[in-house]
């Protein structure tokens, strides 16, 4: 691995440096306004960002192919975000870095060359007409086994797929998992001291006093890596996107919570935090367990270990060797164990390829059925809001939070997600609380969509749904 990748990025106008390119760009905008560029210059910068992403991917891909020949090898993100991703996922990861830094002024200013082919080449087209999709999805959901304890068929390429309770009851041996399941730090005893300190300190919190409608003073907190009220913005963008036939959203009472700079791969914990943010804000059963702010990553590790002590998915401790104080990946079994141990009912389900259906088709149909259960589809509304909780979503090596589902005019479908690996873009932040009129809503939606071209790269999926 190139040591230069771990070096901080330097401001071209002063001595400031940071490992996070987004913070560096924000520093330049705030501290060096005299260097502000014209719209044409910003256009050139955006084109350059795309070229840089492509060049980084080609350079790293070539070296990895020569050195390892394994598309499942882990590599540090050349963007400098601190994440380790597989070679197979690197292109998508770099593309989304471009999307997360999108400013409102950049929307619609240049061609989206990286993703356009993906949108046009979906092989799901034609099979996802609205009524047929929802009918099929309802049938699939009714026939799917929603066992209260996750039991998932073993798979070489999936995330953790051990039939845990069955192995215990039959006397089968419990296998210790490795890098393929637990990530590049599968065998570490403790995370570095600097990272523990970063997680202990947490994100920067800004406290504000606001004048309420009745003249009273309201105290508000802004947490650096949390964004509220994103869903109302995305709903307006879907409404204005002519390529969308219909869209469904979960309750807007959920925050987009994302990683800290240099944090690395704690996506499972961040998704648990997002579900907890919904439980708190919507006053769902169990909200009393989470007074104050959402639990930190270190606190969530304690809760998971406690759940194992109580017998919930307890073989996870043997499979992982314990997670307290480590950077080992967690997944659906750990999230499920945590919630069940607190008396918060949830259901886990898994999707793999069968003779009659591909894994991603089954996943999309199940998600469609879920959102259909929260509203009526008989009306003419293009964008439908429900009061449903968001969904914990896992595939090999990464997890996200599903906050919606959309069907396109060409018959294809997308999951709408909060991805903890990427920040809320400046463009979306500026639109919060505003009436949205976007010249290119599809571009602003890019970071929130995961369609068939993305999903078909994976063989197995898992969902964890809070019971309503």
Automatic annotation (TrEMBL):
User: What organism does this protein naturally occur in?
Assistant: Rasamsonia emersonii (strain ATCC 16479 / CBS 393.64 / IMI 116815)
Record GO terms (molecular function): ubiquitin-like protein peptidase activity
Q: Does the keyword Hydrolase apply?
A: yes
Q: Which UniProt keywords apply?
A: Hydrolase
UFSP1/2/DUB catalytic domain: from which residue to which, for each copy? Answer: 244-464
Return the protein name: UFSP1/2/DUB catalytic domain-containing protein
Q: Which superkingdom is the protein from?
A: Eukaryota
The answer to keyword DNA-binding applying to this record is: no
Show the PANTHER family listed in the entry. UBIQUITIN CARBOXYL-TERMINAL HYDROLASE MUG105 (PTHR48153:SF4), UFM1-SPECIFIC PROTEASE 2 (PTHR48153)
Which Gene3D superfamilies does its entry note?
3.90.70.130
């Amino acid at each position: 691995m190139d040591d230069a990748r771990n070096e901080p990025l330097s401001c071209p106008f002063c001595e400031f440096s940071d490992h996070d390119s987004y913070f560096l760009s924000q520093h330049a905008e705030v501290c060096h306004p005299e260097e502000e560029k014209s719209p044409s210059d910003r256009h050139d910068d955006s084109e350059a960002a795309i070229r840089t992403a492509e060049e980084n991917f080609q350079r790293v891909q070539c070296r990895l192919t020569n050195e390892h020949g394994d598309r499942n090898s882990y590599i540090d993100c050349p963007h400098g975000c601190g994440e380790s991703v597989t070679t197979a996922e690197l292109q998508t990861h770099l593309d989304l870095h471009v999307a997360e830094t999108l400013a409102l002024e950049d929307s619609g200013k240049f061609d989206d060359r990286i993703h356009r082919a993906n949108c046009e080449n979906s092989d799901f087209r034609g099979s996802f007409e609205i009524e047929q999709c929802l009918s099929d999805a309802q049938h699939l959901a009714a026939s799917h086994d929603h066992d209260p304890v996750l039991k998932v068929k073993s798979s070489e390429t999936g995330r953790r797929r051990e039939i845990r309770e069955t192995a215990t009851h039959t006397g089968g041996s419990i296998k210790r998992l490795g890098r393929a399941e637990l990530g590049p730090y599968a065998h570490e005893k403790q995370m570095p001291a600097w990272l523990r300190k970063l997680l202990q300190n947490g994100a920067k919190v800004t406290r504000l006093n606001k004048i309420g409608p009745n003249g009273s003073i309201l105290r508000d907190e802004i947490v650096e890596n949390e964004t509220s009220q994103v869903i109302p913005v995305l709903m307006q963008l879907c409404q204005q996107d002519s390529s969308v036939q219909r869209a469904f959203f979960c309750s807007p009472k959920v925050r987009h919570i994302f990683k800290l700079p240099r944090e690395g791969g704690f996506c499972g914990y961040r998704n648990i935090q997002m579900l907890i943010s919904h439980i708190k804000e919507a006053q769902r059963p169990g909200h009393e367990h989470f007074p104050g702010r959402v639990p930190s990553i270190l606190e969530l590790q304690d809760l998971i270990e406690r759940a194992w002590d109580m017998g919930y998915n307890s073989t996870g401790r043997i499979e992982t060797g314990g997670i307290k104080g480590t950077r080992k990946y967690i997944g659906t079994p750990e999230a499920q164990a945590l919630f069940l141990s607190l008396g918060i009912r949830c259901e886990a389900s898994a999707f793999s390829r069968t003779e009659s259906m591909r894994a991603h088709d089954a996943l999309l149909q199940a998600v469609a059925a879920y959102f259909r259960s929260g509203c009526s589809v008989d009306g003419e509304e293009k964008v439908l809001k429900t009061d449903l909780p968001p969904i914990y979503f896992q595939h090999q090596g990464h997890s996200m939070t599903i906050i919606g589902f959309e069907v396109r005019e060409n018959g294809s479908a997308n999951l709408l997600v909060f991805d903890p690996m990427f920040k809320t873009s400046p463009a979306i932040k500026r639109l919060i609380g505003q009436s949205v009129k976007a010249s290119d809503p599809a571009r602003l939606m890019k970071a929130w969509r995961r369609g068939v071209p993305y999903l078909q790269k994976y063989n197995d999926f898992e969902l964890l749904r809070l019971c309503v």
